[in-house]
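ok, trying the design again with the full structure, not the truncated one.
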């Protein structure tokens, strides 16, 4: 491993870095075009920029690993920046105008193609909404007109069984205590 790099090797690495920066510019325009196609807004802008930064950082790491044995050199980073700026000023302007036109044209075509489906979707929603309202009205009317309502909680079999078992428990306690049982039967016969 050499710590000092010769001048011809530095120049070659610098030119590779300029070309690599040009590639990073193309990558940025691809991310920009995908953002325009799929999403639009502040969140989409933030997400696409974060994803681009991660991708550019990863590719820069791979470039430094292959050309500089993993070392970070200022002239290589400056070469990448210079290549990115050259792309942005030359081909980037042309590519951004072309991608804007392509996105507008594609969105118009998709809008035209989606009109019949959106029309059918709207009709289906209105149809189902009307029918659901009719069914709700009929169901509430039939419940009001019904002669057989649900039983109240007092008359349910479970509650009767609990009530009967508690009464039999009370009677069995009374029978075990004979004096109380006689006084209760006497009170019942008086009334």
């Amino acid at each position: 491993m050499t710590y000092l790099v010769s001048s011809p090797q530095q120049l070659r690495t610098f030119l590779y870095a300029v070309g690599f920066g040009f590639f990073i510019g193309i990558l940025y325009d691809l991310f920009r075009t995908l953002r325009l196609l799929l999403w639009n807004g502040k969140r989409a802008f933030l997400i696409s920029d974060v994803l681009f930064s991660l991708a550019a950082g990863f590719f820069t790491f791979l470039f430094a690993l292959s050309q500089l044995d993993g070392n970070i050199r200022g002239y290589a980073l400056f070469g990448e920046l210079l290549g990115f700026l050259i792309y942005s000023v030359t081909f980037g302007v042309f590519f951004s105008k072309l991608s804007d036109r392509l996105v507008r044209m594609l969105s118009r075509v998709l809008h035209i193609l989606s009109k019949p489906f959106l029309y059918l979707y709207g009709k289906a929603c209105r149809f189902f909404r009307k029918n659901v309202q009719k069914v709700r009205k009929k169901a509430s009317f039939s419940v009001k007109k019904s002669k057989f309502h649900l039983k109240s909680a007092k008359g349910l079999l479970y509650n009767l069984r609990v009530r009967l078992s508690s009464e039999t428990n009370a009677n069995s306690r009374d029978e075990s205590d004979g004096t109380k049982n006689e006084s209760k039967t006497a009170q019942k016969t008086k009334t």
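Keeping the full-length input from now on. The chain has a mean pLDDT of 78.
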